[in-house]
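Standup notes
- DV: blocked on the single-chain target, sequence here:
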Amino acid sequence: MEKKQIVFLYSEIATYFLACVEKLSLDTTIEITVIRWPVNKEAPFDFAFSSSISIYSRSDFKTDKQLVDFVNKLNPSVLYSSGWVDKGYLKVCKKYKNKIPVIVGFDNQWNGNLKQQIARIISPFKILNHFSHCWVPGILQEEYALKLGFRKENILTGFYSCDFDFFNNQYLANKDEKEKNFPKKFIYVGRYYEFKGIKNLWQAFIELQDEQPNDWELWCLGIGDIQPVVHPKIKHFGFVQPSELNNYIKDTGVFLLPSHFEPWGVVVHEFASAGFPIICSDKVGARTAFVENNYNGYIYESNDISALKVALMKIINSDNKTLFEMGEKSVEKAKQITPHIWAKQLISLLK
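- DV (later): unblocked, structure below
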């Protein structure tokens, strides 16, 4: 039987995307080709590619025609494109529209700004004439897809899934120890940029230590253009490869993401899968799937340092049993999106 070819025209790949593609590759009736942009210098991930997946660099194709001819030879059964920015990708997609499922992905939340209103107007001529389907992370992005004119039955959700098995295995490995002795350490994983709210987090944590001294520490993993704050209870570890996160997951207890702007935030899914209570701002898209206020974490208004301090204090004042149970609730919420579910969704389009 001839194998079905699925082609991904991707921007910057990440380990969580590869986890999904690896799961997809277990289906022996499918061949997978990924064309991707260069690695982001701000997130220098080391990637290990399975031999069952063909990987090409976007720069391998000097002209758009070379790219179109290459995809033609593959004879794809499904096409996926990251957004509509790359003109070469668009040319490929337009060629296959009305022939096979041609999927566009994006993580923009609908907010009704001028740029999005213009996108609604031009969508029939610039977006809908290139793509038959849309695959987005969650409900905030689904709203935008509907505004662009995609029919609800042609919109898939759950495009971003963490490497659930890896992070859930950390939960299983550490749960007995954490149930006995829950780590009094917050952890932030992300870039050191203004929009990430990292300075608000540092300020809130330091003020609490001055106002109500306690045993908790703050561990921060990442790099960026903001100079790390110096404080005896705040530790900085720089950029850490995802495969090395297990060392930090074992020794920390509560995850923080204080972003002023975060279309989704797969890292929330990662730490929910690992059994962490979560504090995040109301600008984090992934909160809609993985964080329920006063259940498995706390959601506060972005850029409100006082509200962030209240959330931190709720954690600090909670007993070990409560924090551990919040982490267990996070795991249950994390199970709604996995690479297995992701692969099943894509395979359904082949039928």
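- Follow-up: Residues 170 and 274 are 6 Å apart (CA to CA).
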